[in-house]
Amino acid sequence: MPAKRLIVATSIALAIFGAEAAAQSSGMSFFITSVGSGKGADFGGLEGADKHCQALAAAAGAGNRTWHAYLSTQGPQAVNAKDRIGTGPWQNAKGVVVAKDVADLHGSYNNLNKENALIEKGEIVSTRDEGTNNHDILIGAHP
């Protein structure tokens, strides 16, 4: 089965955090960013992308956790996105588990779909059906 594709609202950052952090009332540990950097894919590296995710999470009431953008880097000091995100499980803003662990997140049977891959505000990512045409996530990682 081919890997599922995610949709992102004007941003290439997917925020995920490790399950080892303290629980908050909503339990959100995964979201797709609702807005981008304003400079295309330029977030100022992984640190800037993480700050962007942290700020969006804080605005949504989930800033008491450490958030990491789901991004990879290339080159001699390459960083793989899946090594930055903890072990799971991850749940969206509505409490729905989207993946129980890293293998599930990267597998064909995760729970990432239009209804569950939500932005930090708990809303679906708008698509052509809602009058916008957002793009797939580009994380800079190889399978």
**Total number of beta strands:** 7
As a percent range, the share of helical residues equals 10-25%
Tertiary shape: globular
Cα separation of the termini: 14 Å
Strand content: 5-15%
Write the topology of this structure.
Elements: E1 7-8, E2 14-16, E3 30-32, H1 45-59, E4 68-69, E5 90-91, E6 97-99, H2 102-106, E7 135-136
Antiparallel strand pairs: 1-7, 2-3, 2-4, 5-6
Notes on the protein architecture:
This protein is mostly loops. The protein has 2 helices and 7 strands; from the N terminus they run E-E-E-H-E-E-E-H-E. The protein has helices spanning 45-59, 102-106, and strands at 7-8, 14-16, 30-32, 68-69, 90-91, 97-99, 135-136. The longest helix has 15 residues, at 45-59. The two termini are 14 Å apart.
